[in-house]
Specification:
By secondary structure, the chain is an alpha/beta fold. The protein has one domain: Mannitol-specific EII, Chain A (3-Layer(aba) Sandwich), CATH 3.40.930.10. Strand 2 and strand 3 form a beta hairpin. The longest helix is centred in the last third of the chain and has 17 residues.
């Protein structure tokens, strides 16, 4: 059973316009946010998990968006965090474009199909240029969270809409 964005993320794990100078700092920030969602997680183990996946290849999906993710032992349900950066950073992306928006996600170690389904949903959402532009221009954590939650409300209300 796939989680919606509303199940993955909350306003406390949605931060916009951060002044971070590198991919490493962006992943560290996401790790802190993701770890805060589960009392049994540490920032260090989440960072290690995200880095392990990044070493397999960049999680950039284009349009200045990356979807760092991983499977985490001891996690009971999927969790997410979202950040936008004030200035894009080099992300070793396949399209060689810098990244300024990251949606991080952790799933339980044994949640393979859920992981793939949610990643597919995220990738489809974040390859919509109009949506990415709206999200990038969100001027508050709350506004970005509303946009993220709104996507799910629209999909839930009309799952066959394009």
């Amino acid at each position: 059973m796939s989680n919606s964005f509303a199940d993955l993320i909350c306003v406390e794990r949605t931060l916009v316009n951060l002044e971070l100078a590198s991919k490493k700092r962006a992943l560290e920030t996401l790790s802190q946010l993701l770890a805060s969602s589960q009392p049994n997680l540490t920032t260090e183990e989440v960072f290690t998990c995200l880095l392990k996946r990044e070493r397999l290849g960049s999680t950039s999906v284009g349009l200045g968006v990356a979807l760092p993710h991983g499977r985490q032992e001891g996690l009971e349900k999927a969790t997410g965090a979202f950040i936008t950066l004030a200035a894009p950073v080099d992300y070793q992306a396949l399209d060689e474009q810098p990244v300024s928006m990251l949606f991080g996600m952790l799933v339980p170690e044994d949640a393979s199909q859920e992981h793939l389904d949610t990643l597919t949903e995220l990738a489809n959402t974040f390859t919509n240029a109009d949506y990415v532009e709206k999200l990038q221009s969100a001027d508050s954590n709350e506004a970005a969270h509303q946009l993220l939650a709104g996507v799910i409300e629209e999909k839930t209300a009309s799952p066959t809409a394009t």
